[in-house]
Amino acid sequence: MTGQSQGPGPEVLMQFLFALRSRGVTDKAVLTAMEAVDRGRFVKGIFAERAYEDLPLPIACGQTISQPSVVGLMTQALQVTPRDKVLEVGTGSGYQAAILARLARRVYTVDRFPQLARAAQALFAELGVPNIITMTADGSCGLPDQAPFDRILVTAAAEDPPPQLLAQLKPGGIMILPVGQSDTVQTLIRVHKLDHGYEYEEIRPVRFVPLLEGLAKDG
Ligand code: SAH
Predict the structure, then answer these.
(1) C-alpha triplet 117, 103, 186: angle, nearest 5°
(2) What pTM was estimated for this model as a whole?
């Protein structure tokens, strides 16, 4: 039986933070947020014991929880401030959303799998995270009712930035997302919305599950 995570313990936590720093996660606020969120609570069963290694791991519905250093680099690139309203597309385990919630005013997170959205919502309640709103939705359309957003983070790869997400970003806002064909190398990019137009910047190669259209059926 694998019980609920008791947290990483001081030595493992130090190694976890060291690995993040050595891979370029240097922002203090991001490191503090990642120190506070126990990744062991977001992975289940046999994978829980590998929660503090810098690896992506399988979660339910054939999806993955991202590698901690990639979560850190994406969060850092997003430049979240405490006043921000953030949209995350691709709740997955909820790990990334829990980190964003420590940095932002409010986080909306959506997944196309009802099962993943429900499980993450229950976990946020258990962990006492007050400022995440979790929904089942096709995030490629964004969340028109809650738009505009100061920041948007997409954790599944699209061929191009979805136009509806670009439209739901505030002027001055930032969106981080992987773009490119699935199954090949994708590029993590930063989109800065200007008063007139957008500025695009490549960050690094990454590999994510594809951003798929429509809701998924549980099972
Ligand atoms: N951020 C997650 C990892 C996400 S894996 C974490 O911290 O664990 C990518 C997730 O994107 C998967 O759960 C997948 O179901 C979801 N996804 C893919 N296409 C989507 C879409 N169009 N709308 C919402 N979620 C989507």
Answers:
(1) 65
(2) 0.97
